[in-house]
Amino acid sequence: MSKRIAIWAFFGSCLLLVTARCAATGQGPRLSGIQNYALNRPGVVMIRTEYSANVYVNSMRMDNKAFNALLDSIQNLDHGGGVTPEQKLDIVLREMNNRPARFFQTTFDYIKQPEQITSIGTGFIITGDGYVATNCHLIDREDAFIRRQFILSAFQQITEASIAALENSWATHFNEQQRSLLYNTYASVYSRLFSMILYDLKKNIYVVYRSDQAGRASDTVKKLADIVVKGEPMPGKDIAILKITDGDQLPVLKLASPDLPQVGEQLFVYGYPGPVTHNDFVAAASAIEPTLTTGIVSAIKQSVGNWPVIQMDANINHGSSGGPVCNEKGEVVGLTTFGSLENTGGLAAGLNFAIPVTILDEFLRTAGVDPETSNATRRFAHALELYGQRRYRAARDEFLAVQHLNSHYPGINNYITDCKEKIKEGKGRAIGPVEKVVIVAAFFLLILGFLAVRSATRRRSA
Question: Who contacts 287 (Cβ-Cβ below 8 Å, separation ≥6)?
């Protein structure tokens, strides 16, 4: 009987110690939105694809004979003095807009206009040595789209310069309606009479992320990236794997198992939506901080290519593409890729789609990349657990260990400083009351088992 008591005491104490360990490492696998963001924010990065080229366009000149004839005709209308200077200017601009080919002529000279356009999206780090996952359409635009964007950019700059030159030569200032009319005039001229030629097109892909510096300061790092493997923009498998140099112990997001998430499952979506990134009232320095939106899995659909996509109601926008879609464990279940359009042509709110990690896994296998969590990220996750339990001394030690592995780990300086301040103020706890009770109970069970074994041994000796 004593032997049986000893066995049960031993197993009971082991169970309680395991329970104490679970209590010490968190309340369970599910993370709140705050915990999810704290864990994954360091590994979310901005993808910047920068195109540069020289746009050559025919210079133009105004036909002075036709223009003077127009001015004479207006003067003939004004014998009675009833036409104001503002009305005369309106007549001139309307006539130029109605018959632009009469007033503007091409020359044999070309204007060289250097142009740069930038595409911004989102990605996330999948290995400690610098492999990054994102969408293919962020880094591989079709030639026709690139040419169109360059020509539009060049046209806008040349047109604004031409309007300013007219204001200067005419000694006047156009109102908004007049500027709009002139803009349309130049658009008609350039589309009908002038040619634009693109030369020296170059493309650079950058991964941009936050980096901690000495003290509490942080900086933005912009690193050139190489394409390791890529698919095709939708309706293709819109995935790309990039690699940045000098990566070591970088913050990493953990990928979920290849199983598709369930409908109704909670999701956390990270990205750099354009309306926020380019908002005039938001400081440029905070552009590197990703936006977190939440939602649920609305449905699992099939793409036209007959592979699965995750429908979700989390809000996204241009710039969110390529961002990680995470579950309640903080694991990546997909990449934000495309939305749905309203009849008006705008994005339909809450009807968005992500490519699941099953498709990402295909590209990782092709690239020979093993998505492994870095040691710095594992210790950072443990430090966050301790911090959430208000065990600031233990958390500080873990954060310091992360800093030793990667002194630029995003946010690490703030956590270390905060832990030190809380310790100085006497806040926090070394071990929680639940853990104490469990450990004391386990200790008594071990003593009980020891005494039972000792008693049984004495009886056998007697």
Answer: 46, 272, 277
- pLDDT of 77-93, one tens digit each? 655 556 677 777 788 88
Q: Determine the 3-state secondary structure of 18 from DSSP.
A: helix
List CB contacts of 367: < 8 A, sequence separation 6 or more.
131, 228, 229, 241
**pLDDT tens-digit profile of 313-359?**
998 888 999 999 999 999 999 999 988 876 666 667 778 999 999 99
Residues 6+ apart with CB under 8 A from 117: 50, 51, 146, 149, 150, 153
CA distance 440 to 430: 15
β-strand partners of 336: 354
* Gap between the Cα atoms of 267 and 295, Å rounded: 5
Residue type, 186: Y
Q: Are 96 and 218 in contact (CB under 8 A)?
A: no
260 touches 311 (CB < 8 A)? no
- Angle at which helix 176-193 crosses helix 143-170, to 10 degrees, equals 130
